[in-house]
Amino acid sequence: IGVVFFGFGNIDVGVFTRVSDSGRVIRETIGFDNPNKAFFFLVPIFISWVYLYGNKYKISSLFLIISVTFIIYTLTYTVTGLIANILLSLLLIFSWLIPSLRTQSRTRIWMVIPITFILFIIISVYIAIAYQADSNINRILSERPKLWYYFIENYLNWSFIFGQAKEETVLPLDNSYIDALVHFGFIFILYLIYMYSKASKLVFKTRIDNSLFLILCLYILVYSLGETLFFEPAYNPSLLIVFNIVRMAKSESINVCPRISS
Predict the structure, then answer these.
(1) Residue 24: is its pLDDT beyond 90?
(2) Which end of the chain offers a freer environment for a tag, N or C, measured as fewer CB atoms within 10 Å?
(3) Where would I find the beta strands (DSSP E) of the chain?
(4) Longest alpha-carbon distance in the chain
(5) Nearest by Cα to 244 from 204, 196, 209, 194
(6) Model confidence pLDDT, tens digit, residues 113-139
(7) 20: which strand partners?
């Protein structure tokens, strides 16, 4: 709501520019310190809303995501947020059109999440190494491959096993997977993959709406390719959901995941 009505105020905003084939594109920050932050802060809002009300208010949820995404993109021109939210909308529509996916408990669908996690780590490192000097790819990805490679070259060494403390730097990383390798370490990444795998398996073994869990995890995994937000619980509620599912399974508590609506 604040973002929508922001344009009616007289608040001074920062303005960024992006060079494209058609010229310079003006990107407004709409009150944040960076144009990307508007979508960044919408991630936990969308995840929480969809997780709690996605199947109860299907049309309203889809309208909310599409309309807010359109408004913010026309102001900030943040491609990462646009792509991730389009994907979220398409996955929701797909799950509603094929209700049988919501009760698939005897399949291997749960493996999609850990496999995607591992695949995105490999893709991130590959793009950084293979395309760090490619001007065309860097232009398309807003110089991300070059920045990813900088962190790999300067910070990723033997300490990647346990990670290392973050240092103050003016350079953005904008990739949660390389951020994990550099700062959190390989052992912690394996632990997270294990936890997401275990939670996914638990969800798909019970008669709950497992499609929402799958969709939201895929959403945050895709978004994490272009932003460093995966390891921030305030911006990635899926961390809390995953650990809560595992904790409740251990204590044999009542599962609080959304039930399948009749």
Answers:
(1) no
(2) C
(3) 15-20, 23-28
(4) 59
(5) 196
(6) 999 999 999 999 999 999 999 999 998
(7) 23
